[in-house]
Amino acid sequence: MQQRQRLVLLIFSLFLVFQTSNGHNITRLLAKHPSLSTFNHYLTLTHLAPEINSRTTITVLALDNAAMSSLLSKSPSIYTMKNILSLHVLLDYFGAKKLHQITNGTALAATMFQATGVAPGASGFVNITDLKGGKVGFGAEDNGGSLDSLFVKSVEELPYNISVIQISKALPSAVAEAPTPGPSELNITGIMSAHGCKVFADTLLAHPEAMGTYEDNVNGGLTVFCPLDDAFKAFLPKFKNLTASGKESFLEFFGVPVYQSLSMLKSNNGLMNTLATDGASKFDFTVQNDGEDVTLKTKINTVKIIGTLLDEQPVAIYTIDKVLMPRELFKAAPTPAPAPAPVEAADAPKASKSKSKSKSSPDPASDSPADSPNPADQAADDNAGVSFKDGRSVAVGLSFLLVFLLL
Ligand SMILES: *[C@@H]1O[C@H](CO)[C@@H](O)[C@H](O)[C@H]1NC(C)=O
Ligand SMILES: *[C@@H]1O[C@H](CO)[C@@H](O)[C@H](O)[C@H]1NC(C)=O
Ligand SMILES: *[C@@H]1O[C@H](CO)[C@@H](O)[C@H](O)[C@H]1NC(C)=O
Ligand SMILES: *[C@@H]1O[C@H](CO)[C@@H](O)[C@H](O)[C@H]1NC(C)=O
Ligand SMILES: *[C@@H]1O[C@H](CO)[C@@H](O)[C@H](O)[C@H]1NC(C)=O
Ligand SMILES: *[C@@H]1O[C@H](CO)[C@@H](O)[C@H](O)[C@H]1NC(C)=O
Fold it and tell me: Which residues form the FAS1 domain (predicted)?
């Protein structure tokens, strides 16, 4: 009797172990197809792979090695390649069946290129049209109506998370192929000024030492969390009260010396060093998911990431709703900061684990898929019969079989 219970427990834990390993991995999916290896390699180089892994209900239009060589023969920079390839990721699920049965024979699909905000106007959409003779044509919408990339075959389908289909050649798009400026030509204060962080950008420009620290990090990797104008304006009296070195550290506190995409932030929760971190002066904060949101917290207050102004490896700029206050410069008690009490409680246990995280390289391969949105269990049940490559469904079947044998 006891032995049986122990066995059931063992099987149950086995089931739990498999359950944690769901979610797709585009690198692994494509690795089974040597003819798509160059495409796969470039998804990694451009850091699109973790972005693809963090999304569901998407379609990747894959190119074989020959189509990739003709694309690469124009020697595009890696930033341009990222734009071109992100035009090949549709933000909707198109299995082979749905592609051949599009309502009214034609549809426009938004792409990851359009979602980055780099694509102006209607560019960044892909036109999918059912052509005569059962062919399916694809074209970038800014391409004068040409639909000469054709559906070749379905490569992988995990309904309705990700569909990978091969198309005959790269979607030509003047906008996506336009040379993208390298990071050193980026005007980060210009981008912030134009999108709601003007007060912070102006303050940074007025403090050349802090500004220099940001500029020094633009090429090697930089993530900026800029407080929106209303919040920063209201904070200025407190800022003006700081000493000169306090002001410099405070401004540098909103930059992190590594590139962090939003999906990396979601999966790399923990302590993060900043540009102001210097030996004993920690000037760090904790990144923590709060449902769909990502929050940053110190012992003084908690702020939320509101928007993305730029996410183009190696630089990311996000807006935050309030001014995050470093504990090195502000005291918890007299500030009117919202809800400091629960923050303190949650802060402590994270520390040791996250120390290494703050140093972690921006390598997308280290991203954990465990934090990706987890739809209802029902979806997993629906899929259980489809994917036997998925260890989970095998484990479920095995568990049931063994439980029956035991009873
Ligand atoms: C789709 O994604 C969800 C959540 O990551 C997962 O539970 C499910 O097993 C996936 N479905 C397939 C077919 O891979
Ligand atoms: C995806 O698969 C590749 C190749 O198997 C592996 O190196 C990488 O760590 C995986 N990524 C994730 C997020 O699991
Ligand atoms: C299909 O065409 C009909 C008639 O032109 C139109 O009313 C309908 O909105 C179209 N459906 C879609 C999904 O475009
Ligand atoms: C897609 O392109 C074709 C050919 O230019 C055009 O006839 C069709 O209306 C376009 N579809 C959509 C949804 O814009
Ligand atoms: C960056 O943008 C700001 C604000 O738009 C502008 O004042 C500044 O001249 C720009 N700097 C460069 C180097 O273009
Ligand atoms: C500035 O510092 C003075 C002296 O420490 C203090 O009385 C005052 O309240 C501070 N002002 C702000 C806005 O923090």
Answer: 23-171, 184-324
